[in-house]
Amino acid sequence: EAEGERTPAERTSEEVAPPLQQSFMIPKKEINMVSDMAKWKRSQAYADYMGFILTLNEGVRGKKLTCEYKVSEPIEKLVALLNTLDRWIDETPPVDQPSRFGNKAFRTWYAKLDQEAEKLVATVIPKHLADAAPEVAVYLKESVGNSTRIDYGTGHEAAFAAFLCCLCKIGVLRVDDQMAIVFKVFNRYLEVMRKLQKTYRMEPAGSQGVWGLDDFQFLPFIWGSSQLIDHPNLEPRHFVDEKVVNENHKDFMFLECILFITEMKTGPFAEHSNQLWNISAVPSWSKVNQGLIRMYKAECLEKFPVIQHFKFGSLLPIQPVMS
Fold first, then answer.
1. Which end of the chain is more exposed for a tag (fewer CB within 10 A), N or C?
2. What is the top EC class of this enzyme, as a single word (predicted)?
């Protein structure tokens, strides 16, 4: 039938209906050498991933962690999944070992996730999408750190964002879940990652040391700065003030990050977190937010050591973006 012979309503219903037979696949490595980076930047995966990050950035703009938002059943199930990972940390205490960092008990904890990941993901997705579980579970497994090196960094964080992005692509998470994705799910993920980092003394992966933004995370600084845009009295210069952080961290992800850094590091803030110290001199939160998005692309998404580990499947394809 020619396009013109159908009513707009008929056409729309077909476009909205899910594809009948989506063939899922186990995501795999595609970026094997520096010259492959061009493939990544042109890929559908890059466009979808960045689009997802920026959509959430807009979704939380000017909003507090403590504000009211819709919490759907899949969101509740994702929090329950993260609570399970948290409980496993309690059940897997660090072992006595000669070296201070990289506690080997992390490997025991990780082995459990490796074994259970598909089952955990299956609790979040509806029965008719069960075939997607093996593909989506790969991103969950990649999001908690490396069990050989016992390290964690922004590439692992990106895998968790990719995990959530995949759940959006299969329709488990929806547009009106945006605030809950960041404030409930991603925030809970951060709490569990901080507990892993502390409990097993994980090494920062591919860290730029004192020249990086943070040893472990990046996205909460982006979304956290968006939360603070147009705040009536909190300016970027205030986040280096201990009192301001203590009084406001429960409302703002950015300040939670600062609090965690000051708990973990000793010495003057300007020395151990020089990049953040520099950012505190930026006049407005919207400038901070724009700058961090640029920095995220340059320092994380365009760095081979980070992106070489990213995996591509049917939901986040390596194929060039369809214009």
1. C
2. isomerase
With 0.85 as the threshold, say if the pTM is over it: yes
Q: Which residues contact 81 (CB under 8 A, 6 or more apart)?
A: 120, 121, 123, 124
Report whether pLDDT(6) > 60: no
The structure tokens 């970027």 sit at 236
Q: Cα separations (Å) of 102 from 99, 136, 150?
A: 8, 27, 5
The interaxial angle of helices 253-264 and 219-227, nearest 10 deg, is 130
Cβ atoms 316, 142 nearer than 8 A: no
113 residue type, one letter? L
Helix pair 219-227, 285-296: axis angle to 10 deg: 160
Angle (nearest 5°) at CA 103 between 101 and 108: 155
Q: What is the pLDDT of residues 296-315, one digit of tens each?
A: 999 999 999 999 999 999 99
Q: Is 7 left (phi over 0), alpha (psi -120 to 50) or beta?
A: beta
Alpha-carbon span 185 to 174, nearest angstrom: 14
- SS3 state at 316: coil
Alpha helices in 174-252 (DSSP H): 178-180, 187-199, 219-227, 242-248
Residues 159-182, mean pLDDT to the nearest whole number: 98
d(CA 181, CA 290): 21
- The Cα 69–Cα 320 span in angstroms is 36
Rounded distance between C-alpha atoms, residue 15 and residue 264, angstroms: 50
Least confident of 1-5, 21-25, 69-73: 1-5
CA distance 170 to 323: 21
Cβ atoms within 10 Å, residue 61: 17
Q: How far apart are CA 120 and CA 125, in angstroms?
A: 9
